[in-house]
Amino acid sequence: MNAHHTHPLRLLLSGLIAATTLFAPVPHVQANSAASISEDGNVVFGAQVDIWGDRISQSVNLADSMQMDWLLVEYDWARIWPRESVAPAARQFEQFLTLAAQHNIHILVSITNAPLWAMDEDGPNAVKTAALVNQLVSENSAIGAVELFPGANTQTGWGAQPDADAYLNLIQITRDTLPRSATDVILLAGGLMPATATSDIEAAHFLDELYQAGALGRIGQVSLRFPIGSAQPGEGQDGLARYERLRLVMMRHDDDAARVWVTGYSWPSAFSSEQQEHLWLFPSYHAMQTQLYIEAAFFETLNPPSLFNSWSSTSLIARNGSVHDALAFFQQASQQESSYAASLVESLNAATSGEVIP
After folding, report:
1. Please, which residues bridge with residue 124 across strands?
2. Do 194 and 203 touch, CB atoms closer than 8 A?
3. Cα–Cα distance for residue pair 197/23, rounded to 1 Å
4. Which of the two ends of the chain, N or C, has the fewest CB atoms closer than 10 A to its terminal CB?
């Protein structure tokens, strides 16, 4: 192999393996302990379930057997409740929450895509959003956290020109109107994503604007949806560097108590085999585990999309019900030996046709 050609997996893993430490056992969180999910300092790992996809029951059963403490589900507001005068079509959503509650799994609900009737000129209407959250948490005890409009720093995520003042106002009104029975429900702010359009605001700049608008003491958890790392030659290993830059914004505003939830990530699309994807998981989780400010992380996704959807999806369960080799990771995560990192490098060398990773 040409010495000037860097293998994609080397780019991804060389920095991560050096930074890893051993996993401590991941605690199984009870349904009434949402506000203290990370008391022992361990990152809580979960996955997203597509309620419009296939294999939902299998996904919840599998999450329980893998001791995933949390699952994330999207509440596509415009799809579920397109007209204010008509009751929401929430059957799939409610069935999923019931199933999760039966397994004592906590749910993070990510509210996206406000319908036209719930939009103002500067974004989603704060009062109507607060009313929706109030209704959801009042009726569903399995909900332990709510993420409000991931990608709030983007035109697509916010539904209008991103506006830190309007977003913080929405967070505050929603928090102030939570029912007493749900005061321990965690509100996640941001769902910050890479800026890809000219109307988007760069994530660190938007977070800085939130603090300038008065976010200190009003947001406790910030959610991010950035790649953990890159597998593309020439792009560099900068996934966690992005997280660190956002953390520096928090520290610059004296918010050392705020914690980060990674609410969507998966392996790079350049991978061509399950073995490569499996090998990516371990060092990536280790890298997150070493960042004490990261409180939770959710893989995207657990179940496959519906056959009626034409778009592709990275999922840990196939449409035929078979499970991805990477799921073995969750079974091993609480019992890793110190020799695992060494065996990972050995396996990686084999997976990359004998190229040695220094």
Report:
1. 119
2. yes
3. 38
4. C
The pTM score is: 0.79
Contact criterion met (CB below 8 Å) for 333 and 23: yes
Query: Over its length of 358 residues, how does the chain's per-residue pLDDT go in tens digits?
Result: 444 444 433 433 343 333 333 223 333 333 333 444 655 567 788 888 988 888 888 889 888 887 788 999 999 999 999 999 999 999 999 999 999 999 999 999 999 999 999 999 999 999 999 999 999 999 998 999 999 999 999 999 999 999 999 999 999 999 999 988 888 899 999 999 999 999 999 999 999 999 999 999 899 899 998 766 544 333 334 557 778 889 999 999 999 888 999 998 877 766 667 777 777 777 777 777 777 788 998 988 887 777 665 555 677 777 777 777 777 666 565 444 334 444 444 544 454 444 443 3
155's tokens: 């035109």
CB-neighbour burial class of residue 291 (10 A; exposed 0-12, middle 13-18, buried 19+): middle
What six digits make up the tokens of 1? 């192999």
Q: Where are the alpha helices (DSSP H) in 177-300?
A: 203-212, 239-252, 274-289
The rounded distance, in Å, linking the Cα atoms of 272 and 274 is 7
Return the beta strands (E) in the chain as ranges.
44-48, 70-76, 106-112, 119-120, 123-124, 143-148, 186-192, 221-224, 259-265, 294-299
What CA–CA distance (Å, rounded) separates 228 from 43? 15
8 Å CB contact between 220 and 256: no
Please, are residues 49 and 59 in contact by the beta-carbon 8 Å criterion?
yes
Nearest to 96 by CA among 31, 140, 47: 140
Closest by Cα among 10, 20, 6 to 283: 20
Q: Residue 38, Cα to own-chain centre: how many angstroms? A: 16
- 107 and 75 in contact (C-beta within 8 Å)? no
